[in-house]
């Protein structure tokens, strides 16, 4: 049988193009499912959050800027026919999909027209130095009969993967009951609503891989509801979809009708004594695309039909909320805020994430001065995308706040920090620390990063520049919309079970 010849450079170009494509285009079925959830949502805070995500999706598509500041860890799933021959510069080469994928990632993430955030760190047990170009990719290769080369390229955000769960159940245990027990403990850091992937059977590592791969199939739960389950896997999907949404976690954990847009299940044969189960969610930054290469050049990727965003405005409706001047903010003013209240922030806003918090905590432990004064300041948990001409900052949505919880009591007590801003719930110790300090916690909508960045009028790095996207910035914002999630009395907004975070 004749070999199918495919140029290595076409593989690199196709993966790089796909990474740019998925950074700003949601899959059509995902947008339509979000619109359906927004249309039927009866809980006002969740409905408003869904609208922000939809507007963000529309703006990102039209401006070719990322839907989320976390532009993801790159996964490349390769299904290669044994009769495919990869050549480079006319010479047959041993296929090194890892090398090709890494080159594509570096090319895509450094593209000047739409730079993407580099989030990967090397040496996870050591210095955790950023690789600067988001390589390496995570590559999965499956060799099959034939002469086709099929690829699925995904950019998986940390907010979803960090909520992955795995268990080895007894064969007599209920898979559905175990999954339902896990959903509240995941919190809202994965930016619901999204799709939940489930892997059942196989070996432990197979279950995790199946859970992730199940996410790359079309959203079709409503068709399944109409036709009814035809097998055990479909019955599990329907059961989980109904039970998870009945929990009332809702969009961004704010309560409401839709926590999952769909539930996907993949399964494989397993040992008679084993029942491995894994779950992984896709967040509001659902980014993946599949394509084939046939030897006639790079893949052609078709943009979504713009009609999918029909009925979605170009901007948020006129905001009604308490105007807050961050530059003159006092503890007395913060004490007047109440949980669930909308605020519109203007003025100077500091940013900090994990690495900056760790560094500040070490300085405080050693009695060294911090590089910035935090007294009566407000801090936003974000690692933004680099800007392009005309932008003060690239997409700048919130990161999950619980990761900063172990540092919060010390910062509140020793620096006079007054307000923190992020996404999702906080742990009980963090809630108590906020109440004790008379401080407040606000939330921005995860999945609305590009929309939020439009409120940032200027940005400059003020500390820890060597940390890259984790450096401390000072933003100047105007009417940045947030909601009071925890007020100075310790009253909390979220409908999920607060997570206990180890110090």
Task: Describe the fold and architecture.
The protein is 29% helix and 24% strand. The protein folds into three domains: 1-155 and 308-316, no CATH class; 158-282, no CATH class; 322-486, Fe-S hydro-lyase, tartrate dehydratase beta-type, catalytic domain (fumarase). The mean pLDDT is 94. With 503 residues, it is of the alpha/beta class. Helix 1 (8-24) crosses helix 4, helix 6 packs parallel to helix 9 and helix 12 (408-415) runs parallel beside helix 13 (428-437).
Provide a compact summary of the structure.
It is built from 14 helices and 18 strands. It is α/β, with parallel strands linked by helices and 503 residues long.
- What form results from the Cα inertia axes? globular
Uncertain runs with pLDDT below 50, 5 residues or more?
A: none
Number of domains: 3
Which range best describes the helical content: under 10%, 10-25%, 25-40%, 40-55%, 55-70% or over 70%?
A: 25-40%
What is the annotated CATH architecture of the largest domain? Alpha-Beta Barrel
Q: What is the C-alpha radius of gyration, as a whole number of Å? A: 23 Å
What characterizes the major β-sheet?
5 strands, mixed, barrel
User: What structural class do you assign from the helix and strand content?
Assistant: alpha/beta
How many beta-strand elements?
Answer: 18
CATH superfamily of the largest domain: Fe-S hydro-lyase, tartrate dehydratase beta-type, catalytic domain
What is the CATH C level class of the largest domain, in words?
Alpha Beta
What is the CATH topology of the largest domain? fumarase
End-to-end gap: 61 Å
Mean pLDDT: 94
Strand content: 15-25%
Strand order in space, largest sheet: 13-14-15-16-18
Number of helices: 14
């Amino acid at each position: 049988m004749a070999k199918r010849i495919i140029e290595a450079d076409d593989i690199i170009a196709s993966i790089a193009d796909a990474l740019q494509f998925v950074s700003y285009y949601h899959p059509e079925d995902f947008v339509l499912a979000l619109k359906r959830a927004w249309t039927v949502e009866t809980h006002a805070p969740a409905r408003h959050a869904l609208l922000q995500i939809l507007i963000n999706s529309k703006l990102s598509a039209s401006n070719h800027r990322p839907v989320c500041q976390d532009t993801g860890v790159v996964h490349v799933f390769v299904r290669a026919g044994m009769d495919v021959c990869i050549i480079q510069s006319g010479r047959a080469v041993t296929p090194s999909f890892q090398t090709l994928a890494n080159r594509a990632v570096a090319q895509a993430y450094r593209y000047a027209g739409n730079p993407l955030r580099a989030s990967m760190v090397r040496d996870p047990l050591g210095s955790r130095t950023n690789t600067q170009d988001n390589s390496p990719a995570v590559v999965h290769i499956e060799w099959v009969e034939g002469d086709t080369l099929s690829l699925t390229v995904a950019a998986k955000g940390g907010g979803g993967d960090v909520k992955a769960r795995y268990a080895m159940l007894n064969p007599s245990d209920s898979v559905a009951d175990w999954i339902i027990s896990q959903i509240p403990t995941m919190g809202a850091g994965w930016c619901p609503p999204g799709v939940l992937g489930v892997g059942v059977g196989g070996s432990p590592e197979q279950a995790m891989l199946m859970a992730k791969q199940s996410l790359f199939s079309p959203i079709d739960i409503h068709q399944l509801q109409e036709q009814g389950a035809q097998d055990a896997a479909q019955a599990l999907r329907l059961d989980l979809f109904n039970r998870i949404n009945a929990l009332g976690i809702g969009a961004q954990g704010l309560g409401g009708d839709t926590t999952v847009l769909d539930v996907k299940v993949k399964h494989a044969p397993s040992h008679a004594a084993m029942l491995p189960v894994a779950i992984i969610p896709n967040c509001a930054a659902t980014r993946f695309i599949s394509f084939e290469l046939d030897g006639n050049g790079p893949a052609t990727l078709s943009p979504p039909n713009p009609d999918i965003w029909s009925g979605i405005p170009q901007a948020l409706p006129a905001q009604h909320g308490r105007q807050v001047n961050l530059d003159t903010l006092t503890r007395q003013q913060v004490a007047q805020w109440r949980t669930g209240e909308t605020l519109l922030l203007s003025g100077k806003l500091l940013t900090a994430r994990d690495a900056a918090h760790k560094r500040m905590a070490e300085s405080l432990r050693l009695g060294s001065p911090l590089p910035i004064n935090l007294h009566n300041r407000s801090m936003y948990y974000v690692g933004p995308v680099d800007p392009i001409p005309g932008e003060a900052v690239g997409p700048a949505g919130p990161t999950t706040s619980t990761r900063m919880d172990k540092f919060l009591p010390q910062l509140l007590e020793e620096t006079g920090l007054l307000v923190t801003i992020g996404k999702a719930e906080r742990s009980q110790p963090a809630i108590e620390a906020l109440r004790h300090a008379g401080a407040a916690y606000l939330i921005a909508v995860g999945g609305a990063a590009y929309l939020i960045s439009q409120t940032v009028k200027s940005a400059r790095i003020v500390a820890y520049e060597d940390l890259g996207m984790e450096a401390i910035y000072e933003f100047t914002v105007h009417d940045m919309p947030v909601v009071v999630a925890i007020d100075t009395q310790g009253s909390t907004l979220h409908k999920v079970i607060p997570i206990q975070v180890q110090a």
